[in-house]
Design a protein that fits this description.
mainly beta, Methylamine Dehydrogenase, Chain H, 5-stranded antiparallel β-sheet
Length: about 475
């Protein structure tokens, strides 16, 4: 698996914090609508950790249950589970805001973006499978163009709002939403962790790591990492200094450092914030304690695509393609113990690429797997081709078949591969929507837009 360090404004051809939500301060009623509540226009964050006090939305602030332009969240579903081979018909791509049921799997699909929205890139999609494009209250989306321009969209009516001023350093911006403040977006620029107020499109420094690491050039998660769910703990690679560092945003201090012992593909904090997990190039993934005093080496096959997740009993795990055994598996970050989940049918199709998305921390015990490849795989098709499915995180799991992606990296198996057509499907933190990029087999496979699968209400309690 190659690195995803995709620098700003370069076209790459190959290739769920701060202000806490609680009761309204002092029991005061929210301000009148023509003024706007203070949490909708938060002040830019100060240098250092963000305050835990300040304006807070009322605890009963309504949360959107589905995109209003598509319709209400479905309450029922024809469930398709297991691994049976099914016939997949060709269907036209949905129009923007049009709700269309997947003809086989019955899930409600819609289109979020289209070129006429005015974004400047060839294609536009969520950055990667391992980060949630939705903000804290589910009203906004951050999307990445194929030429590294970042767009802010409404998650309610799918309108493009603006181009975001993030990044500007010698690494990807890697924007990550605050856990509770819906207008705050963290991003990276050289040695700084910054916080962008999306209303003003201006940033302030959360922490400058220049004084913490001698010889540092950039802090990086290699576009595939994330902070802990509460956005308190972060793990970074500083390649210029050959260092790994962990950072506590609340205490505003570096917690640990150690040398990087090899080439790094990705790294990030586990959801609990207890582990800095490093995916090495050509070596098994390792999970370190925050101060790097403890190391757990995960199974030998963990060098493929993977993401961090939570089990139903709250354990931190890595879910991954085991490249040694050809299983989708999970490993416990505390013990390294491996559990096989789903066998990958390479005996039927050699063209199965996999991405993993464990963002749905609000419903622990489930993980999204998406697959990519050509429209005509070799030597034939499998049940897993070009697919979105949810896997229960336990031995002999339930497998819920969600939808077909209708995105293809090439037409035929030997054709030229289009990297951004991998789709990078990402489930949101609430576990209610899945976003992915798809070209719908257009003649130009780089013409990628963002689509969404709107999952049935409380589906995790209903899958048979």
């Amino acid at each position: 698996m190659g690195s995803r360090r995709l620098l700003p404004l370069v076209l790459v051809l190959a290739a769920c914090d701060g202000v806490l939500i609680g009761g309204n301060p002092d029991g005061a009623p929210p301000p009148p609508p023509d003024v706007g509540p203070p949490w909708e226009n938060p002040p830019p964050p100060p240098d250092g950790p963000l305050p835990s006090d300040g304006p807070k939305p009322p605890a009963d602030q309504p949360k959107p249950v589905g995109p209003t332009c598509v319709g209400p969240t479905p309450t029922s579903q024809k469930w398709v589970t297991g691994t049976a081979m099914l016939s997949i018909p060709a269907i036209p791509a949905p129009n923007k805001c049009q709700g269309v049921k997947d003809p086989v799997f019955d899930t409600l699909l819609s289109r979020v973006t289209q070129k006429s929205d005015g974004y400047p890139d060839v294609g536009l999609e969520n950055e990667y499978s391992k980060s949630d494009p939705e903000n804290a209250d589910g009203t906004l989306l951050v999307l990445r163009g194929t030429e590294a321009n970042w767009q802010l969209y409404s998650a309610v009516d799918f309108k493009r709002i603006k181009q975001l001023s993030v990044g500007g350093g010698n690494q990807e911006a890697q924007p990550r939403w605050d856990a509770t403040n819906p207008k705050l977006l963290y991003h990276l620029s050289n040695m700084k962790l910054l916080a962008l107020n999306v209303d003003t499109n201006s940033s302030t420094t959360v922490h400058d790591f220049s004084a913490d690491v001698s010889g540092g050039d950039v802090i990086d998660m290699h576009s595939e990492g994330d902070a802990s769910v509460d956005r308190r703990y972060w793990c970074f690679h500083v390649p210029g200094a050959n260092q790994l560092i962990t950072y506590d945003r609340t205490a505003n201090k570096v917690l640990g450092k150690r040398s990087a012992t090899g080439a790094i593909d990705w790294l990030g904090m586990s959801m609990s914030g207890k582990h800095c997990v490093v995916g090495w190039d050509g070596a098994p993934t390792q999970a370190f304690s925050r101060d790097f005093s403890k190391t757990v080496t995960l199974p030998a096959g963990t060098g493929g695509h993977a993401d961090l997740s939570l089990t139903s009993d709250g354990r931190d795990v890595l879910v991954y393609q085991n490249v040694k055994t050809d299983w989708i598996a999970m490993a416990d970050l505390d013990t390294g113990a491996e559990t096989n989940l789903v066998t990958i049918p390479f005996n039927q199709s050699l063209d199965i690429g996999l991405h993993f998305s464990g963002n749905c921390s609000a419903i622990p015990g489930w993980h999204l797997v998406s697959t990519y490849g050509p429209k005509n795989p070799s030597p034939g098709r499998s049940w897993m081709d070009n697919h979105l499915f949810m896997v229960e995180l336990k031995a002999s799991p339930k497998i819920w078949r969600v939808a077909t992606t209708y995105g293809y990296t090439s037409i035929d198996s030997g054709g030229s591969k289009h990297y951004f057509a991998e789709g990078f499907a990402a489930i949101n933190t609430r576990g209610t929507k899945i976003y992915w990029g798809a070209n719908w087999a257009q003649s130009n496979l780089d013409l990628i837009d963002t689509f969404v699968a709107i999952l049935p209400d409380k589906w995790w309690t209903k899958v048979p």
